Amino acid sequence: MHCALAIDLGGTELRAAIVDRNGQLIAFAATPTDARGGPNAVIAQIVSLVDQVRVEAGSCSIMGLGIGSAGPLDPLTGTVIAPPTLHGWRDVPLAAILRDRLAMPVLLENDANTAALGEWRFGAGRGTQSMAFVTVSTGIGGGIIADGKLLHGRRGLAAEIGHMTIAADSDELCACGARGCWEAMASGTALSRDATRLAASGEASLLKKLAGSGPVTGHHIAQAAHESDKIALSLLADEARWLGIGLANLLHLYSPERLIIGGGVGNLLELMHEGIERVINERAMSAYRDVPVIAAELGRNAGLIGAASMIFNGQHKPEPEAIQ
């Protein structure tokens, strides 16, 4: 049986899997990322996890390794440029290093793009030729499938959708340094920020009770909303509004067949679906209003499955100068 190795390289957790051609995980392992240890430390962790899952893989014939990593990065040269979540990483030729260490083909891609590939090939996007995947969690990221291909743009930097400006007059500062980005207004971090402010002010007693001494999370907001708490419902209405504005932009930009929502806040889609559709109907031109907004299907495994699928499908090939 032919399989592919997959790595999901995040600033908090490093995850590895072996995946078969049907998108099924055959083996899995994870460890906290040594994010402050520098490239050599993390690369050693990757090699160790690869060795671990290969032991569990049995008779799988490994075709190569696909990596989904926090960006920015250049997928064509296999270079991690300067991810803010990984200390000391700057222009690290990760694909070439691991190709030498593991003696197998290695492909590198932005983690939001690998999740988009996973959903397109094995999840909520199956059967489409054009779709937009949006992950709404700590930040907002995404990937665009256009005419049967992952949209890369120059240096693979296309579709940084979380950094569309959707509230130019806002005082909310985004992690990128700008104000009014979609991420600053509608991410899980933004939702938690607004809810925690209300709880601290005394306006949201149920949320404060649910959160205790910690920050209010999306889970707490969902709990309160199910109890018909007015503050929680208002927070979700605001979240739906901001998400709807951004999604209307994506409809006009990319004309997808489906809008697929994943991530932690994506788990709240059922509570916000009506509000999102209302905003889309108000803001999108009529030709775009019939595009469904649906939940992602693969959960946290989308990135691993998508990274493996690059090996099976040859999503992109490294430039010759990247192969030493």
From TrEMBL:
The keyword Kinase applies. One of its GO terms (molecular function) is kinase activity. Keywords: Kinase, Transferase. It holds the Pfam family ROK. It comes from the Bacteria. PROSITE patterns: ROK. The keyword Metal-binding does not apply. Belongs to the ROK (NagC/XylR) family. This is Glucokinase. It comes from Phyllobacterium zundukense.
